[in-house]
Amino acid sequence: MEEWNLSIDQIHVIVRDNAANMICGIDLTVAESVGCFIHSLQLVIHDAIFVQRKIVDIIAKCRKIVSHFSHSSQACTKLKIIQEKLKLPTHKLIQDVVTRWNSTYYMLSRLYEQKQAVTAYATEHDIPTLDAQQWHLIGNVIIVLKPIEEITKIASADDESIGYVIPSIATLQSYLSKRTQSQEKDIMILKEDLKKSIEKRFLNFSGKNIQESSCFTHATFLDPRFKTRFLKDEVKVKKLILDELLAINRNRSNDEQNIFNSKDKTTDNDNAPSFSEILHDAAHESIWQCFDEIANGSKSDVDSVDTSTEEEKNFNRQPSDRTKKKTIVFTAEIDKYLAMPLITRKEDPVVWWKTHASELPNLKILFLKYCSAPPSSVNSERLFSAAAAVYTEDRNRLLPDNAEMLIFLMKNMK
């Protein structure tokens, strides 16, 4: 922080992983911090699914099967011949990485896709085999994990914000609560275990609840895709937003107006992938049907918003005479924003705010503050991967300062 001339006052929130040493280290800085959404999902899945003995044994066996083909080109060739005979996609099997749950999901999905080919190969070669019940369980695990994989993929996007977390958790809770006649007992048990793990990690973890953290609630409120539809207590959040607008008004500086202009420049890059393009391949009817039900006003699967008369009175109560006019202005702006229709989940909220900045000049300042934080630390981890691509054996005399500039250009020039 000292090297980059950053003070605590300039930092809105730090996104970190959930390691105890990282939590303690950031706590020493007195800065606000939140856990990486994707890492938390990893823990949810580990707690609910990857600790079950039957599933652990199946995954271990799948790793041995994939490893057999990874270490033998002849085995891969024979598998390809079988795939062609059975008219299956000639895809290679995928080896998972223990620390990334979605890689295990991809491994299981690919094996399930190539079930016939792998089974046929096993009849003539000495490799671990899966019985019908184990294949069936793999299929059930894939069904349950598919929506979480899609949410993980979206949260990993470069331009997603922390406002995506609460809607994702609410949508997952709704999806996991769905009961259909065709679903088997194993699937319902897996779903129930996931629900409990989500509540533990996101709604009651060390006394913390994302529905009570301003970092999450304010970002969701200020995202035109979500607004108050996914919030448990919209009246409270509206009151906190109003209070912060009044506080900013008391301490407003002249250069706040320049923040959004610099943000506009980054959104005019024609070569950058659009928000819609990133989401296009992530459509999944069941999970997104749950999202649309909540976004369109159906809250049967999540906690309803508490809008008691007393709270409404507290929100609408006039403050002191000194700030009476500003309170009226800010309240009108909040009401105007909430009266505007939601945009679809595939649209870019930054583009929306660029269009409506002149209509909502005060709220756009809060949008830039709260929605600037990403939902995960994936991007910072990608930076280390970029460094590995710059530091190669052929460039072992590259000076650190030059390497740093090359990495900066690699990540910022599109």
TrEMBL record:
One of its GO terms (cellular component) is nucleus. The lineage of its organism: Eukaryota, Metazoa, Ecdysozoa, Arthropoda, Hexapoda. The keyword Nucleus applies. It comes from the Eukaryota. Keywords: Metal-binding, Nucleus, Zinc, Zinc-finger. The keyword Transmembrane does not apply. Residues 310-320 have a biased composition (Basic and acidic residues). Residues 333-413 form the HAT C-terminal dimerisation domain. It comes from Temnothorax curvispinosus. This is Zinc finger BED domain-containing protein 4-like. Residues 301-320 are annotated as: Disordered. GO terms for molecular function: protein dimerization activity; zinc ion binding. SUPFAM superfamilies: Ribonuclease H-like. It is found in: Nucleus. Its main location: nucleus. It holds the Pfam family Dimer_Tnp_hAT.
